[in-house]
Amino acid sequence: MEERMIASPSFYADWRHVFKLDPDRTIPDEALAAVCRSGTDAILVGGSSGVTYDNTAKLLARIRRHDTPCALELTDPENAVPGFDGYFIPMVMNARDKDWLIGHQTSAIEEFGFLLPWESVAGEAYIVLNGESTAARVSGADSAIPESRVMAYGQLADRLWRVPVVYLEYSGTFGDMSLTRKVRGGLRQARLFYGGGIRTLEQARQAGEAADTVVVGNVIYDDLEAALATVEAVKISAKEQDHVF
Ligand SMILES: CC(C)=CCC/C(C)=C/CC/C(C)=C/CC/C(C)=C/CC/C(C)=C/CC/C(C)=C/CC/C(C)=C/COP(=O)(O)OP(=O)(O)O
Ligand SMILES: O=P(O)(O)OC[C@@H](O)CO
Ligand SMILES: [Mg+2]
């Protein structure tokens, strides 16, 4: 396996575990405090439906009561709230409608790009692999693709386009860890984010071994204790990973 080079330091360079909070969902203050104090590396704010400027700004203000780094996934220019530590711009590699790969992003940059704090902006090459997820429906993702194509999307984003983050998105279902490992092994400079369906310590540990950064979302709203426990599981897996890679 070729040696991987990690891109120059950036706001997400050391993230191993991330909680994703959806501005369209309700989280009580105590639960939010527990999430922020859990030892996670960052809070990622994002969702694929029902996100508005108002609910995003309100969530940011509440997160700012704590010290946890906080980034926004920009899925609509209207929701571009200033004041986050960083901004991610998703591009769906396996979108059937290429507007979700490049079209909407180009239009948004054309109109509003001059406002972006570019030093704190990173592209995310999403590969959406749960065809039942909202992200798949919104972007019309073709999720029924062979491993070879998933690998090719990852390498195209990493090696040709130098996108700093490749994101294997299984939102709502636990994904294929063997494929996740393979995708990561094929990247030269990009960080591999894995997200989807993590509900148990064992799943968190496996994802932590397979990916550079593990994103935990929906379980926060369904089973907070289980969500909090994923932090330690991912961090422990980091130690194992250091010996493997
Ligand atoms: C100060 C400041 C910040 C100024 C900004 C100025 C500005 C507006 C600049 C333009 C920025 C820009 C380029 C914006 C582009 C926005 C855009 C249209 C991006 C496309 C996003 C995209 C590909 C969406 C498809 C769906 C997707 C992949 C979403 C990613 C997030 C995600 C998967 C969330 C999970 O969703 P969830 O709802 O949790 O899903 P489940 O139901 O399965 O749980
Ligand atoms: O919500 P879950 O299924 O944990 O997925 C996390 C994240 O990848 C969603 O974009
Ligand atoms: Mg969600």
UniProtKB/TrEMBL annotation:
GO MF terms, alphabetically ordered: heptaprenylglyceryl phosphate synthase activity; magnesium ion binding
GO process terms (BP): glycerophospholipid biosynthetic process
CDD domains: PcrB_like
Residues annotated as signal peptide: none
Catalyzed reaction equations: sn-glycerol 1-phosphate + all-trans-heptaprenyl diphosphate = 3-heptaprenyl-sn-glycero-1-phosphate + diphosphate
Superkingdom classification of source: Bacteria
EC numbers on record: 2.5.1.n9
Name the record gives this protein: Heptaprenylglyceryl phosphate synthase
Organism whose genome encodes this protein: Cohnella fermenti
Taxonomic classification: Bacteria, Bacillati, Bacillota, Bacilli, Bacillales
Gene that encodes the chain: pcrB
